[in-house]
Amino acid sequence: MKIGELAKLSGVSTRTIDYYTNCGLLAAERTKTNYRMYPASVLQTIERIQILKKQRMSISEIKDVLETNENPQTELLVEEVYEEFDCLQRNITRLEEQLKDAPSHVKIQISKALESKMVAIASLLALL
Question: Which SUPFAM superfamilies does the annotation name (predicted)?
Answer without folding.
Answer: Putative DNA-binding domain (SSF46955)
